[in-house]
Design brief:
single chain; alpha+beta; Arc Repressor Mutant, subunit A; Beta-Lactamase; six-stranded antiparallel β-sheet; 8 strands
Length: about 260
């Protein structure tokens, strides 16, 4: 009898499956590979650890990029967003970030600094509580009530220097974010700094990142802060549209090429 598939075989098979389907849950992987869910979870975790996959708060796995730093967003989203971030920073004269959700935290994965001498310091690589940042709140607003309860089973974690909202206050704020399309952060993470954030979407309207404009509160307070939402939403829509175009091209290419099977 020939030997059964090795762990390496399973990982490679799973990686091909992940790219073919675009998203997987543990039970889907287990069924496709004909293995126990615990084995599928271990294999998916291996892909995540090495950057070949990523997991969101819905416990779904997506293709990653091995060249992306740990916790970073896949290279295609960052590459697509970069020129738009640069144009936005030039237009508003403020620092612009790209953020992704990691569990109950939000990570800054890209930055373009604004023009004025008094700028907000870049925070690339920094991980902060999602419910205190504008980009994190914009991404949290995409989750269902059940997903939020799963994310915060013991309530909201707070940082030593930030009070943060109560859970009920956050739920009301997320509802308001869904209505207006963007989130605010008024000195919740750093005194003297305010920000607005809006989601970038990819495939089936799934939010994969958030674009954030951060500015000194002396320049962005009240209506001045809300006015930044106009160019922010335009930029987020432009990145979303470009990701959709790339997705359609990729799907068309995959459909014509496909995988060749060998006997």
């Amino acid at each position: 009898m020939p030997p059964g598939p090795s762990s390496a075989d399973r990982v490679l098979e799973l990686l091909a499956l992940l790219h073919a389907r675009g998203r997987l849950r543990v039970r889907d992987a287990a069924l496709a590979l004909d293995v126990a869910p615990s084995t599928a979870h271990r294999l998916l975790t291996t892909l995540v650890r090495h950057g070949f996959a990523r997991r969101d708060v819905r416990h779904e796995y997506f293709p990653g990029a091995p060249a992306t730093p740990a916790g970073g967003e896949p290279a295609d989203v960052a590459v697509v967003a970069r020129p738009h971030l640069e144009a936005l920073a030039a237009e508003v004269g403020e620092t612009v970030h790209l953020m992704v959700l990691e569990g109950a935290s939000a990570r800054f994965v890209a930055v373009v600094e604004g023009g004025p001498a008094r700028r907000v310091a870049p925070r690339v690589g920094l991980l902060m509580p999602a419910h205190l940042t504008s980009g994190g709140k914009a991404l949290l607003a995409e989750l269902t009530a059940e997903e939020l309860r799963e994310l915060y089973p013991r309530g909201l974690p707070l940082t030593p220097d930030a009070a943060g909202p109560a859970a009920g206050v956050l739920r009301r704020e997320l509802a308001a974010i869904r209505r207006r399309g963007y989130a605010r952060n008024v000195e919740e993470t750093e005194r003297g700094v305010s920000a607005v954030g809006a989601c970038v979407r990819e495939g089936r309207h799934r939010a994969v990142a958030a674009i954030v404009i951060a500015a000194p509160s002396s320049r962005a307070r009240g209506r001045s802060l809300d006015r930044l939402s106009g160019p922010l939403l335009v930029t987020a829509a432009a990145v979303t549209a470009q990701l959709a175009t790339r997705g359609r091209r990729h799907a068309a290419g995959s459909g014509t090429k496909g995988f060749r099977s060998t006997e």
